[in-house]
Amino acid sequence: VIGSVRRAMQIINDFKPDAVVGVGGYASGPLLYAASLKGIPYLIQEQNSYAGVTNKWLGRKASKICVAFDGMDQFFPADRILKTGNPVRKEVVDIKGKHYAGAELLKLDPLKKTIMVTGGSLGAGTLNKAIEKHLPEIIAQDVQVVWQTGKYYYKGIIERLGLEYHPNVRILEFLNKMDLAYAAADVIVSRAGAGTIAELCLIKKPVILVPSPNVAEDHQTKNAMALVKNDAALLINDRSAEDTLVKSALDLLNNKDESEKLAVNLGKMALPEADEIIAGEVLKLIKA
Fold this sequence. Notes:
four-stranded parallel beta sheet, 288 residues, elongated, 13% strand, 48% helix, Rossmann fold
């Protein structure tokens, strides 16, 4: 740690910043601490609903703390908190009028109901087990599934099922056009990382979140609960997902009122200008 702070001091001496921005984790700690020693103002962007150890420690001397969820005054000084949301790539959430284009790209029937399942670039074992186990039920209801397996699991799944398992099933290692995939979906199943949740709030479609249990301080469950308590998402824990996830997704797909309620409430939590607001706060620090 001492060596990291020394190296951070060297970087600051060489770069001579007017302000420093950190997003938590081991990389931010030494740099923001070095900035505080040099009297340089710094801003923290806390992405999750449960602050990590580094950010909680650094928050005491931060000039501004940008957050994405309510209730963050339990971790940081209330007078320095600003709820901005998390920045997202605008092109990913620009789905208006793209339903048919998404269906065409993914070789789907645009008139059939579609579940999208994504576990991130590496994939999520629990989500993959749940979908593979219950494919017969999905097919029996003539529902389509866009199944993004992730790099780690793709080869094994294809070896077991084949590339053309069924016309209603699209098995993909990675989704290169997330906007079109989101646009084609009627229900989305996902982990509960902060960046993903920020996108989903802007997408405004019914969502089932399955938080990863393999993250620090179980922050994905806390992220998901921030939506659940606002009737903006459904939550299924990782332990039960293999047996219950697909039934819940199919039930939601067939429940128009519940789907609409979740979508509307999710949209109410959207904060679309996070990048510009955070950048503006950094500029304020520089000009102060």
